[in-house]
Amino acid sequence: MGGASSKRSKQAPGYEKSTVLAAETPFTVSEVEVLYELFKKLSNSIIADGLIHKEEFQLALFKNRNQRNLFADRIFDIFDVNRNGVIEFGEFVRSLGVFHPNALVDDKIAFVFRLYDLRQTGFIEREELKEMVLALLHESDLVLSVENVESIVDKTFSEADTQGDGKIDPEEWKGFVSKDINSLSFPSFVGSSEIEDSEILA
Prior knowledge:
Layout lengths: L1 H8 L8 H7 L4 H15 L8 E2 H9 L7 H10 L6 E2 L1 H8 L8 H12 L7 E2 H14 L6 H15 L6 E2 L1 H8 L10 H4 L11
Helix pairs in contact: 2-3, 5-7, 7-10, 8-9
């Protein structure tokens, strides 16, 4: 009995059983166990408390905890389902589930919509789209002229805003992105981890 409680005390706050998470996500039990190893590494990279703080998330994405990026902030906010400023293990696995090749397309579309809906109004507005395009370009170290960025935003709105009301609702978004949504892939920290032999990355 003492062994079970000591094992439990070594687990991160918010730890959930692999079998429970595998039942609720596209991951297998073994994939969840691999993700737990990655989670432990990320959650102890700056603050050794078994929770992923925003700085640790930034470090995982950019190898620099001080580099701020709207894109990373939005992903962190979406992963932080409890809105308590940290990502617990269950939140981590459930949120990463949307990137799994077997995740439902509707879940992927909803995730990306929430990513772009910066003000959480239920619509993507022109300025939100522009802010995210700029953030993605910055993350990719790409520089485009203001005219090119405006052109991307204009083209997206001309194709996606089928009602012509100056905002993109979830149904319009679904119609716009559904052909490309399967290219949604795991964040870089999953692919660059030391767990390269996992079937997750196969």
